[in-house]
């Protein structure tokens, strides 16, 4: 999971809500199949919108869900999937290592208390 550094401090609700969201991120990061990394705020490829990459079981094709302000788009079109995967890798290059990311989340969580 890649998270834009800006969302850690972007107030959505009261401080209690923010703490709850950050607690949830820290809790989810403890799962063996989940990696949480904070992306440097100067990462421009991350500004093009949210997306998810789903690697499905039983040989099903990789499927992408890309968001826009108006709607989401789901596809397994090979060209679209490849372009989103390339964008994901470009964003990952801007991500802090997981241990540093989790420390950042913990520090910001303390700021909200």
Automatic annotation (TrEMBL):
InterPro entries: DUF5753. Residues 1-107 form the DUF5753 domain. It comes from the Bacteria. This is DUF5753 domain-containing protein. The lineage of its organism: Bacteria, Bacillati, Actinomycetota, Actinomycetes, Streptosporangiales.
């Amino acid at each position: 999971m890649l998270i834009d550094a800006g969302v850690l401090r972007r107030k959505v609700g009261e401080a209690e809500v923010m703490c709850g969201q950050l607690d949830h991120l820290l809790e989810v990061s403890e799962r063996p199949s989940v990696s949480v990394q904070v992306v440097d705020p100067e990462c421009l490829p991350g500004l093009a919108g949210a997306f998810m990459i789903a690697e499905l079981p039983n040989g099903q094709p990789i499927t992408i869900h890309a968001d826009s302000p108006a709607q989401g788009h789901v596809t397994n079109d090979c060209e679209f999937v490849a372009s989103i995967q390339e964008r994901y890798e470009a964003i990952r290059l801007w991500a802090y290592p997981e241990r540093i990311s989790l420390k950042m989340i913990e520090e910001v969580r303390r700021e909200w208390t």
